[in-house]
TrEMBL record:
The keyword Cell membrane is annotated on this UniProt entry: yes
Protein name: MFS transporter
Organism for this UniProt entry: Streptomyces tricolor
Pfam families per UniProt: MFS_1
Transmembrane segments: 64-84, 91-118, 124-142, 154-173, 179-198, 218-240, 246-262, 282-306, 312-330, 342-363, 375-396, 408-430, 442-461
InterPro entries hit by this protein: MFS, MFS_dom, MFS_trans_sf
Cell compartments where the protein resides: Cell membrane
Domain (Major facilitator superfamily (MFS) profile) ranges: 26-465
């Protein structure tokens, strides 16, 4: 029987610990974090013309307001997934929220274009740590079963809506206040998340999967992704023909080869070979890449057409995306029922097919015309498809993850944003910097074709893997 002294010590220890939040409160916090990751990527789109005027960007450097976030987000995800599995999701979540808050504050107060690009890169680094931590915490707080399925649906819904909500919020804040508030608002939310995160439960057993960080391999993997994404964001227009532009991918290939060699020889690989042998996980990674290459790049071309062809203000452009922001959660909400009825893979394929039809419906907007006829139908249909595809992809991939939730979720999100970088680079090379007419139609057709490719590729990959 425990002694009174032992009972007193245990009571004192428990009193020093933060009170764990109710499951609903924890889910709200983690869903907010997931929303913020996508939102912070897209919130700058409709504000780019205003930012350009205020800080004096060159034509080539303006794209880095978007690209700096994506480059560092994709490049650091693997390292951060390793951090989650090694040190625990709660600590990484708190640190990531703090970094994101500080970087967003710096972006909102910056005085020059170079400063803004640096702070956008730091925002991407903070988001890279936040992404695997949120999914890992979700699976810890909600055990496998119906409750975890419902929690994952909510989490995925906010993620699917993040890109659209970012465009909407960016337009509203830019028009009604200042472009600086698109960053300052993120700083406020991230700081609040850090405070609320103090009440998240500490792990009962510190690190079921604990291994060294293997910084050498981590740096090689990060350098490879950073160099490739850097190259893809630079070789637009006539850049493909300059020999010097091929140095970054050549160095990236060397880094990647070194990483693969060292990782295969390691007893604790950063990319566990067991994950690569799991068919649903590999299909989910492919789906995530194709999702961002098609639907992620859709925001870029639609925003430019709204500004250049339809002559929308920042506020009008942001509000114009509202139907997509509303229908993406609807698509995500029905994904669970569709999966139970038809299966995970057919639901995923259906999401891409619906999304591809929605993108194709945007073709008339390249010639102007009424919003209700040329823009609205495409946004509504593609929003439903995006919600279904995003939720189904993450549900399929995470269904086979065990104690390596951090590195598994990081791999899915890494290929998602890597695919987005590839898609955006190819899109810009097809359309040019100011799309209109035939070039804009070619760009939209390309995005629809990428989404349709997923309809064919994913079932084949599932059968052959």
């Amino acid at each position: 029987m425990p002694s009174p002294e032992a009972d007193a010590l245990e009571s004192a220890r428990r009193a020093d610990l933060p009170t764990p939040p109710a499951p609903a409160g924890a889910l709200a916090l983690l869903a907010t974090a997931q929303l913020l990751i996508g939102l912070d990527y897209s919130i700058v789109y409709v504000a780019l013309p205003v930012i350009d005027t205020a800080l004096g960007f060159s034509a080539e450097s303006l794209q880095w307001v978007v690209s700096a976030y994506a480059v560092f987000f994709a490049g650091l995800l693997l390292v951060c997934g390793r951090l989650v599995d090694t040190f625990g999701a709660r600590g990484v979540f708190l640190g990531a929220a703090g970094v994101l808050a500080a970087a967003s504050l710096g972006a909102g107060l910056c005085a020059g274009s170079a400063q803004l690009i640096v702070f956008r890169a730091l925002q991407g680094a903070g988001a890279a740590a936040l992404a695997p931590a949120t999914l890992s915490l979700l699976t810890q707080i909600f055990p496998p079963g119906p409750r975890q399925t419902r929690a994952l649906t909510v989490w995925s819904t906010t993620g699917a809506a993040g890109l659209a909500v970012g465009v909407l919020g960016g337009g509203v804040l830019t028009q009604l206040t200042s472009w600086r508030w698109i960053f300052l608002a993120v700083a406020v939310v991230a700081a609040a998340m850090a405070v609320a995160g103090l009440r998240l439960p500490r792990p009962v057993r510190p690190g079921a999967f604990r291994a060294d960080l293997s910084l050498g391999r981590a740096l090689l993997a990060t350098a490879a992704v950073l160099l490739v994404v850097l190259w893809l964001t630079r070789v637009t227009g006539g850049g493909w023909g300059r020999p010097a532009e091929y140095l970054p991918p050549a160095v990236a290939a060397v880094c990647a080869a070194g990483f693969v060699r060292l990782d295969r020889r390691s007893g604790n690989p950063m990319v566990p070979r067991a994950l690569l042998r799991r068919r649903p996980f590999v299909v989910a990674c492919a789906a995530a890449a194709l999702f961002m290459a098609s639907f992620g790049a859709e925001f870029y071309v639609v925003t430019l057409l709204m500004h250049d062809v339809h002559h929308y203000s920042a506020l009008m452009a942001g509000v114009a995306f509202l139907p997509l922001a509303a229908t993406a959660p609807l698509g995500s909400a029905v994904t669970g029922r569709l999966t139970r009825t038809f299966g995970a893979l057919p639901t995923l394929v259906a999401g891409f097919a619906i999304g591809a039809a929605g993108v194709a419906l945007l073709l008339p907007m390249t010639s102007g015309g009424p919003y209700a006829l040329t823009v609205l139908p495409g946004l509504v249909v593609s929003g439903v498809g995006q919600g279904i595809a995003y939720t189904a992809a993450y549900g399929l991939g995470t269904s086979v993850l065990d104690e390596q939730q951090g590195v598994g979720s990081a791999l899915i999100t890494t290929v998602q944003y890597f695919g987005g970088s590839v898609g955006l680079a190819v899109l810009v090379s097809v359309m040019g910097e100011t799309p209109s007419g035939a070039s804009a139609r070619a760009g939209i057709a390309l995005l629809a074709a990428v989404a349709l490719a997923a309809v064919v590729v994913l079932p084949v990959a599932h059968r052959k893997h």
